[in-house]
Amino acid sequence: MFVLAEVAETLGEHLSLWAIRLALLAMFAAFALQLRGASETSNLVRSVWLCGALCAFLHSVGSLFTFHAGSHQEAFDSTARQTEELLGVAFGIGLYVNYVFVAVWLGDAALRWIRRDFYSSLPGWYRTMVYGFLGFIAVNGTIVFKAGWIRVVALAAIAVLVFLWWKRFAKRI
Predict the structure, then answer these.
(1) Which of these ranges, 3-17, 34-48, 88-102, has the smallest mean pLDDT?
(2) Burial 108-118 (b: 16+ CB within 10 A, else e)
(3) Is the dihedral of CA 64, 68, 73, 76 positive or negative?
(4) Which of 4, 59, 3 is CA-nearest to residue 27?
(5) How many helices (H) and strands (E) are present in the chain, helices listed first?
(6) Against a cut of 0.85, is the pTM above it?
């Protein structure tokens, strides 16, 4: 049975949840723009990417204070409970993975703005690692650990990105 995403009761909770939803929408938009041929250092892609990273940061801080009363231990325990419900093992380290997710995204976004030429010269494996890590966490956060409309929207977004990828790269084969 599908359940709804988290139920927000306060304004802070609503803002925190919508911050991550907007962050993931920005991630999708940046990926889609690039698959349609936009450069990762174009002003539009850099702006969308930075907005997404900032929204992810706001979600992380907002969640800590609205859902966990500012307690890192409560956030860690909550992450462990959610992981135990899904995998049968209480493992709270996912909270730190979320912190790394935000740090990597913010760092990558900042690098695009601060050192645009340098960013353009980075090897392909760098982008593969960053996009792969961020995408993996996004999939886990929207499909593996969620249900309901969030999961459906995430699956549709992935289908659109796969289609755009196929459309762009199938011509080369």
Answers:
(1) 3-17
(2) bbebbeeeeee
(3) negative
(4) 59
(5) 7, 0
(6) yes
